[in-house]
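Appendix B. Chain record.
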Amino acid sequence: MWCLLFSVLFLGGYSLSEAKKLPLPPYIKACHKDDPNIDACALQHAKESIPQMLNGDKTYGIPILNPLELESISVETGGNLTIILSKVKVFGLDKIDVTKIKVDLPGKALQFEFKGEKLEILGKYQMDGKILVIPLKGNGDCSLIASNVDIKFNLKYDLVERDGDEYIQLGENNIDIDLDNLQLQFDNLFNGNEELGKSTNKILNEEWKAVYAELKPAISKTISTIAVTIVTRVTERVPYKQIFV
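Structure tokens predicted for this chain:
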């Protein structure tokens, strides 16, 4: 089972400890708690607000999402493989479409579904170990390109009181990510052995489904952590009564 360890995760350099009470951003519209079509309301407002959020918002601690930049991510497989990615850039979030939202206020639960044609991750890597039965060792540039991405994201929340107002505090969540294809490229494998590196990359791409099955828990945890972090930048600043009026 993959275990994800974030040694360093910078999302625009903002700290959650800097939070202060703010009104709902003008590009995010509230939904009424008693609206019988609250799911449709939330979906429409999400579609309208996400394009604005892509540019980031320093007031609310939201980083620029197009591209999203991550300083460093460390991933390990319980002893089989360790990968450290640095200077990471994620492209394609501007093409992600939210297709479904379900709001369960009594149960304090939210469900989201997203679809995207392509997500591309570029950065530097250091890697040592093996995946499946393939030995992997090297450092250099890397890229991962996921095609036809389908994301289902469910999360729970609690309401916590602070300075006389209630705020959403995100809790446990689960995420499922399906792909139609995954292309991987790791440059400078095996101390620059071009022939061995080329053949290894070829095998990784030919066996991408099995590779993704190994990577999926780590990728899912990464995306989940990023999503929760960004949403929390708003929910810890904006009182609940302004989000659902």
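Further analysis of this model is presented in Appendix C.
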